[in-house]
Design brief:
Elements (H helix, E strand, L loop, with lengths): L3 H21 L5 E3 L4 E5 L6 E11 L5 E10 L8 E7 L9 E2 L3 E3 L4 E10 L9 E11 L6 E10 L4 H4 L4 E4 L5
Antiparallel strand pairs: 1-3, 2-3, 2-11, 3-8, 4-5, 4-7, 4-9, 5-6, 5-8, 9-10
């Protein structure tokens, strides 16, 4: 086993196999960006509605299937998730509304989806506050919910006259 050519050939083969696996078969991680804006309607007894534009990015080569999504207020004592109901083409506009379905995020690609979440009863009137949120997903064949994004829902003082009365778009960037 003192043959340098054989050792170099074996190392080259191992490197080639590893590289091929890395570029073509490796399962990636799903990354989700923090939403820049949102549309919301808060209600105690009625339906609470939230829409967020999420950018999903798969950093691996193989597709990731998102079976379902849900949204959770992280600081609620009794967690009552908001259900993924629909996708829309334009935030705050219900024309071209499509029922929620599972969706693929192709390898090394980004996907923008405006997702609508609801719960009834809403159980919450929004106040000027930063609400910690979790976007959770069921990926592939998994039955477990997995946190894929944590972010703050920033309800500004200037949003209070409308956020609990009508469904309109708000900025999610902190001022100042």
């Amino acid at each position: 086993m003192n043959n340098p050519a054989l050792i170099i050939s074996i190392l080259a083969l191992l490197f080639t196999i590893f590289s091929f696996w890395w570029m073509n078969w490796r399962k990636g991680k799903l990354q989700v960006g923090t939403p820049r804006s949102y549309a919301a309607f808060g209600s105690l007894e009625g339906r609470m509605i939230l829409e967020f534009p999420f950018v999903f990015f798969n950093d691996g080569p193989t597709p990731i299937i998102v079976q379902n999504l849900r949204l959770v207020f992280s600081d609620e004592k009794q967690s009552k998730p908001l259900t993924f109901i629909a996708t829309v083409k334009e935030i705050g506009n219900h024309q071209n509304r499509a029922f929620a379905t599972q969706f693929p995020v192709r390898g090394r690609e980004a996907l923008l989806l405006i997702c609508e979440f609801q719960r009834e009863p809403g159980g919450m009137i929004f106040e000027a506050h930063n609400y910690p949120m979790e976007l959770q997903a069921r990926l592939g064949n998994s039955k477990k919910w997995k946190k894929i994004c944590g972010f703050n829902l920033n309800v500004a003082e200037k949003s209070l006259p409308t956020i609990n009365k009508q469904f309109i778009v708000h900025d999610n960037i902190l001022e100042g």
